[in-house]
Design a protein that fits this description.
- By secondary structure, the protein is mostly beta strands.
- 8% of the residues lie in helices and 45% in strands.
- The protein contains five helices and 18 strands.
- It has an 18-stranded antiparallel beta barrel.
- The longest helix is centred in the first third of the chain and has 16 residues.
- The relative contact order is 0.11.
């Protein structure tokens, strides 16, 4: 499954008993860690041989091996409702730009700046603005980290973009979500071909920067103050120590077999054990069957904040998922299912908690659509989804059409059977045109089943230049 708001979230005080995190941050400020590392590399680059094999004849040589990246995005969103809700639209121009220095003794520094601006084109009435896009000038150092990278080991921190099933970039607006965190990955079998794709991952998140915010804070998307998300108003003024996760991964994108097993601890919210595996049977004929399986088990964690404010702790529930399909020379067809068991009296009667994707519709359940999925309905039940993806004109055009239906316990927001249809079309300019990196994408979603909004038509036009 694939992957800045003027109203920046208020920085909330850290909870009591969190002195170890304060001490850690005082010893290693996020800007100083990356800045000192970058300075040391730049000053020492010329004429030094890197233990990884790189040699810099000059400072210019060092710069040539430094990687620069970024994009420029122009976004126009429009929301139209048939029910009792105000139609909305918004425009934003922005993106991000960054660098990853060339390695010196396996050390690198990374900096990425994200920014966005509405150019004054949004409605004067705040209720008519889609606040998931920036309403004014916003900028943030999305990444500022020092990294040690070896064939067998990667260590990185603090400010960075993470990509795991439940702590991920959610990059479908101007910039990705980011995390003040420390990340480590061990690949002990890098020289042993049968297990080369096996790695062990550990990470610890302290603070979160939503995809529409200009600051980091000790919160997640269940706290008020984030554009999007699923805010619980009673959590205003509270905070969380963050999250930690440990993972075992095998394979990589494009390989026939991939699998990952994760333990996630969303501190004072929930704990989640998660498995996700997929297999593509390469037949050599161009018609390749594909299969996927998901399983998760969730239970409450610690001094549960949701229970403290009367919403019920995370349920002791299980999550199931199945996917089947076929890849052909012209189209990929898939059908998928997800089920979530029920526990009365728990949060959402057993809803699956996802603190860093809820409201964003960027979780890894097979049946999540553009506007929402099982996480956003905040209810147990089941869902199915059928999808077709096709590439045309030598892959210059990508077309994705999907339909998702949800069978849930009715809530104050959704009926028992919401559904959503999406059409997603992207045109990428060919390299021969001199416009390599430029693309135009339009995503259209139609959701029904929201009691207040009724029919919800969501259109997103993106023009992007990737460099």
């Amino acid at each position: 499954m694939a992957r800045l708001d003027a109203h920046t979230s208020r920085r909330l005080p850290a909870p009591g008993g969190n002195e170890s995190r304060k001490t850690l941050r005082s010893l290693l400020p996020h800007w100083a860690a990356a800045g000192i590392g970058l300075g040391a590399i730049v000053l020492g680059a010329s004429g030094h041989a890197d233990t990884s094999g790189a040699y810099y004849e000059s400072f210019g040589d060092f710069l040539r091996q430094t990687k620069f990246h970024g994009n420029l995005r122009s976004y126009y969103f429009s929301r139209t409702y048939t029910g009792e809700a105000t139609n909305q639209y918004a425009y934003s121009l922005g993106g991000y730009a960054g660098l990853l220095t060339a390695p010196l003794y396996h050390f690198q520094a990374g900096l990425t700046l994200g920014a966005g601006n509405s150019l004054g084109l949004n409605p004067a009435n705040p209720a008519a603005v889609d606040t998931t896009l920036p309403g004014g000038t916003v900028w943030v150092l999305t990444e500022a980290f020092l990294q040690y990278r070896h064939k067998y080991l990667t260590l990185r921190g603090p400010d960075q973009i993470l990509d795991t099933p439940w702590i991920n970039p959610s990059d479908s607006r101007i910039k990705p979500s980011a995390y003040r965190a420390f990340y480590g990955e061990l690949t002990p079998f890098a020289d042993y071909a049968p297990l080369k794709g096996l790695s062990f991952v550990g990470l610890r998140v302290f603070e979160f920067n939503g995809r529409a915010e200009g600051s980091f804070s000790p919160t997640n998307l269940y706290f008020p103050g984030h554009a999007g998300g699923s805010p619980v108003s009673a959590l205003y003024g509270k905070s969380t120590p963050g999250a930690l996760a440990f993972g075992l991964k095998y394979g990589s994108p494009g390989k026939p077999l991939t699998a990952q097993l994760w333990y996630n601890k969303f501190i004072d919210f929930s704990q989640l054990l998660w498995f996700d595996g997929s297999f593509v049977h390469k037949t050599g004929t161009g018609f390749d069957p594909l299969f996927g399986f998901q399983f998760g088990s969730q239970w409450s964690d610690g001094n549960n904040l949701l229970a403290q404010v009367g919403r019920g702790a995370a349920g002791n529930i299980q999550i199931y998922g199945l996917l089947a399909g076929i890849d052909t020379p012209h189209v990929r067809l898939t059908a998928s299912y997800n089920g979530i068991t029920r526990q009365n009296g728990a949060f959402g009667n057993g809803a699956l908690l996802s603190p860093y994707t809820t409201g964003y519709a960027t979780d890894y359940l097979y049946t999540t659509q553009m506007i929402g999925g099982m996480i956003e309905t905040q209810s147990p039940g089941s869902a199915f989804k059928v999808a077709a993806t096709s590439y045309l004109m030598d892959k210059q055009i990508k077309v994705l059409v999907s339909y998702g239906g949800y069978y849930i316990a009715p809530t104050s927001t959704f009926t028992a059977n919401p559904y959503e249809t999406d059409v997603d079309v992207t045109y990428s300019f060919p390299k021969s045109s001199g416009l390599d990196g430029l693309s135009i994408r339009n995503r259209f979603g139609w959701q029904n089943g929201n009691i207040q909004r009724q029919d919800f038509f969501y259109n997103r036009l993106q023009i992007q230049y990737q460099f």
